[in-house]
Fold:
Amino acid sequence: MICPKCNTVNQDGYNYCYNCAYPLKENIKQKEVMKLLGISFGYEMAYIFDKVIEIYEAILKEKPHYADVRYRLALVYELQNKYDKAIEHLQQALNINPNYIQARNKLADILVSVGKYQEALIQYKTLLSTKVNYTFADVLNNIGVIYEKMGNIKQAKSYYMKSISINPRFAKPYYNLGNVFFSKGNIEEAISNYNKAINLNLNIPEVYNNLALAYYKIGNIEYAEQNLLKAIYTNNLFFDAYYNLVLLYIQTNKFQKAQQILEQITEKFPHSYEIEYLKKNLQKKQKEKFKKESIDKLENNIN
Structure:
């Protein structure tokens, strides 16, 4: 038996090449692949991605049509922000198995993240026509997101509504619908949809932040403040909520609170140029208030 790796002649009963230890029989090769997969999962759990890639690439040399390995390798490349390589392996996985729904969904997600919206739309719409059973509410929502990014708000709204009609317990399209209504000035509908998303456990800072902005629009300062604080509690590195909270305190003349938040974010985000804008805004408002109070005092003395 000739070793395909080093061309050494081995006896027929050999399982491994005596010269390079390459597995010679298919059942032995499969065992080696399973062993390598087990090792790769361990490295993946430990975030040692270079080793994971090395193992997956070794498996693909033996089994280039192993779609699952190509999919998992793409996930690792995505974590490393190597999107071209991730896309390449996902496309190859789909060439092997066109009904590989996880690979197609992930490919569409990555295409969106790199701004290739038309290509992503093709992948999502292909998912909708696949014969494999799949819950399409998330796909319809993602198509809506693409149309919204492309400025086609009417189509975006339509797909968000379709997503909700398929799965009324799916929170994301409610949040996205809230954004659509907010952008159109329909604040009450925006608030309603944001609250539905929250009630369905969409625990992300963006939904609280945007709900706060909606409440501010209708003059409900108390609820605006509460939701900005919830956004910060959900993610204490979510800068937008701090920024909006400082502006809220400045606009409502709560200068001491504004200053306290400014001190926090100056420490958390030392390189943010937007903090300087907030500081100048606070100083300007304080001067205006002091000036107004001085004028009022003078007028009262005159009277």
